[in-house]
Automatic annotation (TrEMBL):
Residues 273-463 form the Rho-GAP domain. It comes from Loa loa (Eye worm). It holds the Pfam family RhoGAP. GO terms for biological process: signal transduction. GO terms for molecular function: phosphatidylinositol-3,4,5-trisphosphate binding. GO terms for cellular component: cytoplasm. This is RhoGAP domain-containing protein, variant.
Length: 709
């Protein structure tokens, strides 16, 4: 397999390769940029005869508990033969089958249920009808063999797929759309542990994606993104997000789509204490390791006692638990002086709590033996042994050692000499807290410390770091050191900004930046540069996990939201998003009255008739009988498009407004703020434009669009 990148399509070793049917495999905004692609000519595939395609040569039999469309048939003798699956009450197959027959050629999906271990099948009755049947077969053994054999019968027959299918969790036919700019195409998809493979009909590429690198999945999408070839769908597709692209997937039947969603959600959880189960960056480093190192490199390289002073135990445990729960959406923000020590403790604890050490036990004796040599050739021995590690382990080891080398080079400030760091990270990288009964003796600890000293001292030689890489890294370190020395920590911190959609592309800005500066920077990002009419993009403050959004006014600083509100609210539910603003601001499209709207007050779910009026810099609220209920200054109100899912407004066009300075305001309360429902989208836009233009920080001549919807 060759890792390829779609700029001219070249491999990572510089070789040029060409592909057939490349028009179906456009690289615009799709996950294939970060996928491993295996090439193969469909024309050269060895086709099997029709008997094999229909599974006529396959024979399987076993007892299984059977559920068909939620009806429990109890234990039946399930037989697969002559291209069909059926079940009898006895293994003599007397009389008509209790269930079936279901023809293998009509199977849309087959896979192992991640919760109860049963085999899930989605089968169409026949090609002339749209009626689908869901079967669940719970058997004692050979679940994977059944899935693998059935998949091989129903999948497109070509050498490429047959070679790749080894140890399946699930497989089936689906419709696939690579990114937002491509068309839908029929194809085939299967899951093998942490690897998701898919192939498009007529395309000579098999795409391989690592589920551990997915940064999110969305299962509720706008109908504009649904596959038009799927008839009668009520749920639509789901969207897989990975750094650099996205992938839309929809099965021909909603139930099969939901089964894929459940399976991938389970795989994406990556729970447990195996390094191989961790959420990964594009460089195959655990996300928790990457984020901790970046945080310490940004804020803590010069802190005295780095990695030798412990953080408060409760904060360390809490932060580590949050990381294990959702490492992708866990963002570290500088807080108290202990925060650096807390993050450093979390990094060490992550390694110590693994089920096996980062450097496996089976190679440690070889490494210790090499470390005892005085011959310079031992560096080559180190290299040969370490390069035999799985990619995740060698990439993680290289990343942590590279970071620790940066730390030790600033020992004059942080007092973290190679000797001190080796004493801490020797046991951390070579042993774990629990597990296989391998205890560290004093002699073993000394060997671990000496080995880490060697790895840090000769890091560049052992890992073959080029002179160019060393020069670039040295310049970066000098700039980092100069920045840390000349800037007070209170000057600001980095804030992530998402582009186009959450977790699709992100970049960092200083918290002291205002919205206009952020938009200028975002328009020059690669993900936006090729978009049409980028001046109609805007920065949005998203809260309540994206249920509510507010267009950020040009003068607003990022710190006014992050430290001014989010830290007191729920930071994990808030983020900044730069995306297209569909309706540019127009003074002609504004109206200072919102008549006959439906309003739900703070904490309330029910809506009643009301009226809003903009008068003299105030927003006045009148009830149905035109009696004034309340009024607020426009500059004290934050207006968000949308509503919380717990509210059920009578109209879909809603605004939610809050008064964050009000003593009665509580972000975490149910049904936060006032919710206003409008009969039409135009009425909502007219009112919103009116209140925006009345606010003190409104800039009509700003180059940034000003509409929030």
């Amino acid at each position: 397999m060759v890792d390829l990148f779609h700029d001219g399509i070249s491999s990572n070793n510089g070789c040029e390769r060409s592909f057939d049917s490349s028009d179906k495999c456009s690289d615009v905004g799709s996950l294939q940029n970060s996928a491993t692609m295996i090439t193969h000519s469909w024309k050269r595939s060895k086709k099997t005869n029709g008997q094999d395609i229909l599974g006529h040569n396959l024979f399987l039999s076993a007892w299984a508990e059977v559920i068909v469309c939620k009806k429990d048939y109890g234990k039946l003798w399930i037989v697969v033969e002559q291209g069909a699956l059926a079940g009898w009450a006895s293994n003599d197959k007397d009389g008509n089958p209790a269930v079936g027959p279901y023809y293998l050629k009509n199977i849309l999906y087959v896979g192992k249920n991640p919760v109860n271990g049963a085999i899930d099948l989605h089968v169409r009755e026949n090609f002339l009808c749209s009626h689908w049947t869901n079967l669940k077969l719970k058997m004692v053994a050979e679940v994977r063999k059944w899935i693998l054999d059935i998949v091989k019968c129903i999948m497109p027959k070509n050498e490429l797929l047959l070679y790749s299918v080894r140890n399946l969790c699930a497989g089936g036919s689906v419709w696939i759309r690579q990114g937002t700019a491509c068309a839908w195409s029929s194809g085939w998809m299967f899951l093998d542990e942490h690897k998701l493979y898919y192939a498009l009909d007529g395309c000579a590429i098999l795409f391989e994606l690592d589920v551990r690198k997915f940064i999110g999945m969305k299962s509720t999408l706008s109908k504009i993104d649904w596959c038009a070839s799927v008839v009668g769908s009520m749920k639509g597709p789901f969207l897989l997000l990975q750094e650099g692209g996205s992938l839309f997937v929809q099965a021909e039947y909603d139930s099969a789509t939901l089964t894929w969603i459940d399976l991938l959600n389970h795989q994406m959880e990556c729970s447990g204490y195996r390094l191989e189960d961790s959420k990964l960056t594009s460089d195959d480093v655990p996300v928790i390791v990457d984020k901790c190192i970046k945080f310490i490199s940004t804020y803590g390289l010069l802190q005295p006692g780095l990695y030798r002073r412990n953080g408060p135990n409760f904060e360390v445990r809490s932060l580590l638990a949050e990381f294990r729960k959702d490492p992708v959406n866990m963002h570290l923000l500088p807080g108290s002086g202990d925060m650096i020590n807390v993050v450093a403790d979390v990094l060490r604890s992550f390694f110590r709590q693994l089920d096996s050490p980062l450097v496996p036990y089976h190679i440690q004796d070889r490494l210790f033996a090499v470390a005892s040599l005085k011959d310079p050739a031992r560096l080559d021995e180190y290299h040969e042994i370490l390069m035999g590690l799985p990619r995740i382990r060698i990439q993680t080891l290289r990343r942590i050692l590279d970071h620790l080398k940066d730390v030790t080079e600033l020992a004059y400030a942080n007092l973290a000499t190679i000797e001190n760091v080796a004493k801490i990270f020797g046991p951390t990288l070579f042993s774990v807290e629990q597990g296989n009964g391998v205890d560290n003796s004093f002699t073993t600890t000394i060997q671990q410390v000496n080995l880490v000293k060697d790895l840090l001292t000769y890091y560049a030689s052992i890992f073959r770091i080029s002179a160019r890489e060393m020069i670039i890294k040295s310049k970066i370190n000098m700039l980092q050191e100069k920045s840390n020395q000349t800037k007070a920590r209170a000057d600001g911190f980095l804030v992530p900004v998402h582009i186009l959609e959450k977790d699709n592309h992100t970049f960092n800005v200083q918290s002291s930046s205002n919205a206009e500066q952020v938009c200028d920077a975002a328009r020059n990002r690669p993900a936006v540069r090729n978009e049409v009419d980028v001046n109609h993009f805007a920065l949005f403050e998203e809260i309540k996990c994206g249920q509510l959004e507010r267009r950020v006014n040009p003068p607003e600083k990022m710190s006014s939201m992050i430290t001014g509100r989010w830290l007191d609210w729920e930071p994990a539910e808030c983020f900044l998003l730069f995306k297209r603003d569909p309706i540019p601001y127009s003074f002609r499209l504004s109206y200072p009255f919102a008549d006959d709207v439906r309003i739900a007050e703070q904490g309330a779910k029910s809506f009643s008739v009301g009226h809003l009026k903009l008068e003299g810099g105030l927003v006045a609220y009148y009830n149905k009988g035109l009696k004034k209920v309340n009024e607020w200054h426009t500059d004290d109100i934050l207006w968000y498009a949308g509503h919380e899912s717990s509210r059920k407004p009578p109209y879909p066009h809603t605004l939610t407004f809050i008064l964050p300075k009000d003593d009665n305001f509580k972000y975490k309360s149910k049904n936060m703020g006032y919710c206003v429902a409008f009969r039409a989208a135009t009425l909502r836009t007219q009112w919103l434009n009116a209140v925006i233009s009345s606010q003190q920080d409104f800039h009509e001549n700003s180059s940034m669009p000003l509409v929030q919807i």
